[in-house]
Write the C-alpha cells for this entry.
Amino acid sequence: MLGIVAVFPLAIILGLVALRQIKKRNDHGKGIAIAGIMLGMVWLGMCAAFGSFVVEAIRDFQPEVALDKGVCLTDVSGGDISMSQPVDCDEPHDAEVFALFKLTGHEQSEDEIRDKAYERCAQLFKLDVADQFQRDPLVVQTVVAPEPGVDFGFCLAEHVDSGGLTQSVLK
C-alpha cells in the first residue's frame, strides 16, 4: 500500500523535472510529462478523498449496542454506554433504557438540545418507570442527549451501584 501511495509524488516530481529538461533541450515528450503530472495529481486527489473518508469513519466509530426501550445494560457509567453489553433484565445490571425520544423543533445550541432532552426524559421517567423505582433514591435518570445534527436520544434508569438492578424498571 505504501508503494502505491508513494507513486503520486514521484509521478508529479519526475513529470516536472522532465518538463524542465524538455524545455531546456527543446526535446520531445512534453505530452508524456504532462500526462505523468496529471495522473499523479489525480492519484493524489483520490488518496486524499479516501484518507478523509477513513479518518471520518474512525472518528465516528461507536461500538454498536442495539438500543430499544427495555434493553438492560452492564458497564454503564453516567450514561456512557460505549463499553456496555446488553443483558437479561433478570440478571444484575447497571441501567435500562426506559425511553427513546426524537427531538422536534429547531434546537440549535448544545445547551438547548441538552435542556430539551432532560425535560423529555423527566416526563417519560414519570410515565414509563415503575413507582418503586421512581421513589428509590439509588435509581437515577440519565439522559444521553443527541449531538447537534442528530435528532434522537435515549433515557436510562441507572442504579448508582454497579449491578444494582435485578429486574426491569418499566411499568
Remarks:
- Residues 30-60 form the longest helix (31 residues).
- The mean pLDDT is 77.
